[in-house]
């Protein structure tokens, strides 16, 4: 039986001055547009042909004909592997946000900024909750502006071991790193924070960007979602939990001791205590950050997974996912290796 291969790539060297239609042996027609001396790359999604009938084309300038030359299957495999390799590398480079950042704390009970449709390319926005901590409709307005949607209580930090914790953060990454994008670049992405200042040197967190820290937009920043870690004058926490806003501490400071955590609603106390235990009540610790694949333990609580997670994890690569610049670089690099291997 003759093996059948997908045609992920057709290379056409255009030297003709007239439009030429080249008929593939399988019966498919490949239009040859009007160009001079340009290498053209096509990624057809529906064209299939026997491996032995995959061709590259050259132009006979004397007879103005398109000549067909069989390409050995091992050369084809090299080209396909080259395309896959450079596609993955270009995609990962485009997603690989790294840098230095400052970390702060917040817990204002507002609906997360990444909880709205259209903020990024994800499966769904970050989960928001009603006042009784039940998942609510995506379109529900934020409790910080008279609405009924609040931050779910389980979107708080927790310790994995002595040197690693998981959690959530309001995020801002500067334009020089995100290529000018804002929330679409970070909403629901996960970042590993390796702390670089005392008392947290040697410790790391993996946080999901569930919110946006717009109040400071001149530096990279991760504002950790910590119950009792900081509060605002919106009184959304009082509205959500039916308690006096003062139990969440002072405005812009939060509670002052681990004992004060006992005054918080019961489902928030563990995250509050985490601040004084694992986090050592650190104030504005610095960290190096890098984009990582989100642990399922984190996304299980927000239900938000970015569609580029599979690319980052290496599970999938798609030429259509590349930015124009990355697509061009990957394509040219693949062509060079493919040509050299023939």
Automatic annotation (TrEMBL):
**What reactions does this protein catalyze?**
Endohydrolysis of (1->4)-beta-D-glucosidic linkages in cellulose, lichenin and cereal beta-D-glucans
Q: Which residues form the Glycosyl hydrolases family 45 active site domain?
A: 102-304
This protein's UniProt keywords:
Carbohydrate metabolism, Cellulose degradation, Glycosidase, Hydrolase, Polysaccharide degradation
Enumerate the InterPro entries for this protein. GH45_Enzymes, Glyco_hydro_45, RlpA-like_sf
Q: What class of enzyme is it?
A: hydrolase
Source organism's superkingdom?
A: Eukaryota
Q: What is its EC number?
A: 3.2.1.4
Q: Give one GO biological process term.
A: cellulose catabolic process
Keyword DNA damage listed: no
A Gene Ontology MF term for this entry? Answer: cellulase activity
Q: Which family does it belong to?
A: Belongs to the glycosyl hydrolase 45 (cellulase K) family.
- The name of this protein is cellulase
Q: Which organism is it from?
A: Plenodomus tracheiphilus IPT5
């Amino acid at each position: 039986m003759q093996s059948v291969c997908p045609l992920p790539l057709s290379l056409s060297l255009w030297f003709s001055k007239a439009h030429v239609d080249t008929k593939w042996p399988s019966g498919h027609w490949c239009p040859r547009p009007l160009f001079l001396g340009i290498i053209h790359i096509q990624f057809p999604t529906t064209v299939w042909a026997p491996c032995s009938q995959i061709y590259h084309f050259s132009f006979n300038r004397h007879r103005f004909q398109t000549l067909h030359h069989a390409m050995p299957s091992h050369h084809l495999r090299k080209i396909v592997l080259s395309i896959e390799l450079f596609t993955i590398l270009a995609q990962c480079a485009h997603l690989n946000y790294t840098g230095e950042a400052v970390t702060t704390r917040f817990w204002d009970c507002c609906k997360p900024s990444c909880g709205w449709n259209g903020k990024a390319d994800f499966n769904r926005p970050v989960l928001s909750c009603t006042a009784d901590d039940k998942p609510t409709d995506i379109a529900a307005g934020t409790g910080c502006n008279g609405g009924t949607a609040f931050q779910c209580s389980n979107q708080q930090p927790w310790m994995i071991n002595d040197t690693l914790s998981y959690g959530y953060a309001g995020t801002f990454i500067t334009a020089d790193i995100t290529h000018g994008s804002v929330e679409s670049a970070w909403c629901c992405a996960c970042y590993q924070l390796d702390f670089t200042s005392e008392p947290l040197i040697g410790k790391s967190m993996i946080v999901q960007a569930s919110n946006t820290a717009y109040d400071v937009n001149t530096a990279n920043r991760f504002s950790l979602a910590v119950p009792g870690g900081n509060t605002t004058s919106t009184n959304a926490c009082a509205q959500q939990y039916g308690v006096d806003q003062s139990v969440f501490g002072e405005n812009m400071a939060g509670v002052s001791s681990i004992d004060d955590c006992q005054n918080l609603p019961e489902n928030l106390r563990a995250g509050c205590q985490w601040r004084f235990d694992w986090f050592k009540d650190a104030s504005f610790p610095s960290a190096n950050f890098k984009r990582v694949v989100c642990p399922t333990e984190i996304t299980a609580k927000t239900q938000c997974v970015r569609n580029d997670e599979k690319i980052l994890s290496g599970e999938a690569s798609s030429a259509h996912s590349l930015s124009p610049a990355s697509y061009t670089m990957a394509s040219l690099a693949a062509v060079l290796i493919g040509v050299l291997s023939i």
